[in-house]
Amino acid sequence: MTQFIFNGDKGLRVDTCYKSTEGLALFDFAKNHSTFAGKAGEIYYLPSMEGQGQYLLGLGDRDKLDLEALRKASFNLARAAKDNKTATLHLNLNDFELDGLKEEAVLEALMEGFLQAEYKFSRKSDMAKDEDDSKEQDVELEIAFLNNLDEAAFGKTERRIRNLIDGIFLARNLVNQTSNEMYPEVLADKVKEVFQDLPVEVRILDEHEIQDLGMEAFYSVAKGSDRPPRFIIMEYDGGEEGQEKTALVGKGLTYDSGGYCIKSARGMSTMHCDMGGAGTVIGTLLALAKNQVPVNVVAVVAACENLISGSSYKTGDIIGSLSGKTIEVGNTDAEGRLTLADAVYFATDTLKADRLIDLATLTGAVVAALSDEYTGAITNDEAYFEGLQEVAKTEGEKIWLLPNDENLAKKNRDTKVADVLNSTSGGAGTITAGQFVGEFLAREVPWIHLDIAGTAYGDRAKGYVPERATGVLV
Ligand code: BES
Ligand code: MN
Ligand code: ZN
């Protein structure tokens, strides 16, 4: 377990430098004896046989230093300390130029990056794991630089960041568990357990209630699996009564085989990740509730599996939905939007949300357009989106807004036999998929759709974002 210590002075000294720093002996030494150049996040470690080694942490160009660079640098420092078996680090930033960054935000970024180094997911056998774990050093970080923050503020910041990290790690753990151990009933039970002692009301609808309520779009996807679906509702009222209520809707396919429009072996191999949206909304709610953030938020997940069997839905089926709209199934692999259709309608109708954000690993097309770097977005309210974008930027999360073009939206209605069609042709698949979800808002409320198919899950680590589930956007 990582510990943070306010103004301690026992650890191994960590100096910081910008590329432009002059007159720092350790920096000169590092430059002369290694390739160290003071780049952001770069670490130089000078061990000592006598016991007191030293660290130098690069911060790059002074005018480019932002909170995200600090998170990454802090993560690298924690990793380096673990690798070098350093038990306690002493970071003294008394002479550190804050350059407009708030002390508290700097502390948050340092703590967040440092804690990120703790994340692990593995199903290696205990035998193999013991060997790995015994190598992992616990690191304490002493931070001394706080001219304006006292110990109480330090402690408060630490608790806030630890709660955020809990949300991020929960999101990752839910998504990383493969479909043999993480299926709708397990997810529902886990949600109950996680929120047990928190002011979050959890309601779970089973397969009978789902059908009785008329969630035909959702149930059509779910019915091919022997594992029954669960509709999961989590309500957190941290704000005033009557204050705006935000709905977070997360796609919750615990596995997506594609159904009768079956995926390739390769395409299917990571499809336990198709509940990335669910992971993010559940993790977000955990962080909000633990931090007692004064907002009213309801999170909704329609959890199911898209499989093949004698009871699966089929290409060409015409199905109903909770909204009353009928849907022609052009492709059983475009299942996410069907589950979201009922979830979004439920959130805006029954739950009366005033605004809504949905997150979904919805299309391969978003990966073609934006790779694993950007989440793709569409919205019906650009001012609402700008608010999200601003926060995302300070948190190091990349989002790219795509055009919510009415001519493209029309493609979803290009069917002779139903109100809408779940697959379109002619490109812009990320946009039309998002617009399909938007068709199911019960009222015209501010709405943002986030396609995280490229960003929720990856095959390589990127800085403090690990390989596999990322916990994107918590
Ligand atoms: N879950 C997939 C999208 C996906 C792809 C997520 C890659 C993560 C990584 C989604 O259900 C899907 O299959 N979408 C289809 C839609 C098409 C049939 C209209 C796609 O993108 O191919
Ligand atoms: Mn699919
Ligand atoms: Zn899917």
Strand order of the largest sheet: 7-8-10-9-13-17-14-15
What is the helix content?
Answer: 25-40%
Outline = elongated
- Residue fraction in strands: 15-25%
Tally of DSSP β-strands: 19
Number of helices: 15
List unreliable stretches of 5+ residues. Answer: none
Structural category is alpha/beta
Question: Which small compounds were modeled alongside the protein?
Answer: ligand BES, manganese (II) ion, zinc ion
Q: Distance between termini? A: 22 Å
Average pLDDT rating: 96
User: What is the radius of gyration computed over CA atoms, rounded to a whole number of angstroms?
Assistant: 24 Å
Main beta-sheet annotation = 8 strands, mixed
Report on this structure.
The chain has 474 residues and is of the alpha/beta class. 36% of the residues lie in helices and 20% in strands. The chain contains 15 helices and 19 strands. It has helices at 25-33, 67-83, 103-116, 126-135, 151-176, 184-195, 207-213, 216-222, 265-268, 276-290, 336-348, 365-370, 382-394, 406-411, 429-438, and strands at residues 3-6, 12-17, 43-46, 54-58, 88-92, 140-144, 200-205, 230-237, 245-256, 296-306, 318-319, 327-328, 355-360, 375-379, 399-401, 420-421, 447-451, 457-458, 468-469. The protein has an 8-stranded mixed sheet with strand order 7-8-10-9-13-17-14-15, with helices on both faces. Strands 1-6-5-2-4-3 form a 6-stranded mixed sheet, with helices on both faces. Strands 11-12-16 form a 3-stranded mixed sheet. Strand 11 (318-319) and strand 12 form a beta hairpin. Helix 2 (67-83) packs across helix 3 (103-116), helix 5 (151-176) packs antiparallel against helix 10 and helix 8 packs antiparallel against helix 11 (336-348). The radius of gyration is 24 Å and the shape is elongated. The model has no long low-confidence stretch (mean pLDDT 96). The protein binds ligand BES, manganese (II) ion and zinc ion. Manganese (II) ion binds next to loops.
